[in-house]
Specification:
Blueprint lengths: L7 H9 L4 E7 L3 H6 L6 H13 L3 E6 L8 H14 L18 H9 L2 E3 L6 E3 L3 H16 L1 H19 L5 H24 L5 H30 L5 H23 L1
Parallel strand pairs: 1-2
Antiparallel strand pairs: 3-4
Amino acid sequence: VQSVKGNGHVFRALRDAGLREVFIGVESGSQRILDNILKNTTVDDTIDAVATLKDMGISVSFGFMMFTPWTEEEDLRANIAILRTLGSVEFDKLFHEMDLIPGTPAIKQGQALGPITAKQGTGYYTYRMSGLAARARLCGRALELRQRDFMERVWFLGKDAQRSIQTRRIGARELDQHVTELNLRMFEFCIDALKTTVNQEEVTAEAVADACVSEFDSAVTALSAAMEENYRFPRPDAIRQAANATTLSCRIDNQVKSI
């Protein structure tokens, strides 16, 4: 975010040289969380940076941590609000959590709130949460484990929307808004359902994950069909084939020139 602020001329030059996407560490839409992780930026700075890049036709992807050791319901709602403003929201990222990394202040901050445990095979640590945020985190894990086919289809929607912006297709902005809104509605469905439950956390998370898929499966299918019919975005295999064909063409051209 800080790199974009005040450097619009640099990014315009980079765009003209071929830049198509920028990754930004947004992390949170809650100023309280940004301050706790020592981000040294503001929510408004983030909104301005993303708008600057998108106005130039540059696609923006970003890192986001829905869950941290301090996350409460008000932070979840603030996250939804900024994501709705930023756009380009990928559903799986709505369940990302902050990892505690050894050697950083986050370890002591996490320990101050309760016991932390190692995440097997990562070198990082995780932490216990409580309340709605804890149930939402479990819901995300249940979606990944129980609904992989659905999650893959939703993931492709986000990637197709990003690709449409990168290639400057007509209607790309509108498509991105449709995908973002659908993803946020699914997340809101989950947390609203979790807020009203009184069952055990694990059981509730699985039930809500399944209910989310049942509620939105037809909408995801319809949007996917609309993309293929109206936008005809190439899938990864087609993209690789096109890239290989371009590379081969360049090699042939160079050989002809050398002869």
